[in-house]
Design a protein that fits this description.
This protein has two helices and six strands. By secondary structure, it is of the alpha+beta class. A four-stranded antiparallel beta sheet has the order 1-2-5-4, with no helix packed on it. Strands 3-6 form a two-stranded antiparallel ribbon. The radius of gyration is 18 Å and the shape is globular. It starts with 33 loop residues before the first strand and ends in a 7-residue tail after the last helix. 23% of the residues are buried.
Length: 145
């Protein structure tokens, strides 16, 4: 899928591209994946947004696999340069925006701490309710990932 440069929805540049239909409504999606009936991006569409830093494709969580939302290359500087979209339970088959762009990615220390908690839950050494409390402590003062 060809993408237009900029942080805006892409427009396909290939006029011979196949039609893509909304899985929920069966209507043809706009070239950027927008469903006119659902008034949202369809969950079977490719994320049409590009990174404002490197112009690479963003994923629906707002992440850029190319530059990780930073210009330094340092993992501690990684961000999510795009808005986060999640599946919408009130509008099945579509995405809704849930968090705005510019969120910091977790630090390596936060990542290690969170992974240790996940491993403890999987090994049944820590109850899920307790794990959530520990994760809140690790990520206190941040928006939820």
């Amino acid at each position: 899928m060809a993408r237009r440069k900029g942080g805006h929805p892409a427009v396909l540049t290939n006029p011979d591209a196949e039609r893509v239909l909304c899985l929920s409504h069966g209507v043809e999606l706009r070239r950027d994946g927008w469903c006119a009936l659902g008034q949202a991006y369809a969950s079977n569409a490719v994320c049409p947004f590009t990174c404002p830093i490197c112009r690479g494709p963003l994923d629906w969580k707002g992440g850029c696999e190319r530059c990780h939302g930073c210009t330094t290359g340092n993992k501690a500087d990684w961000t999510f340069p795009g808005d986060r979209y999640e599946r919408d339970d009130d509008n099945p088959g579509h995405f809704k925006a849930t968090l705005k762009a510019g969120r910091a990615a977790c630090t390596p220390r936060e990542n290690v701490g969170a992974m240790q908690i996940v491993q403890a839950v999987l090994a049944k050494k820590l109850a899920l309710a307790d794990a959530l409390g520990h994760l809140r402590t690790i990520f206190s003062g941040r928006e939820s990932p």
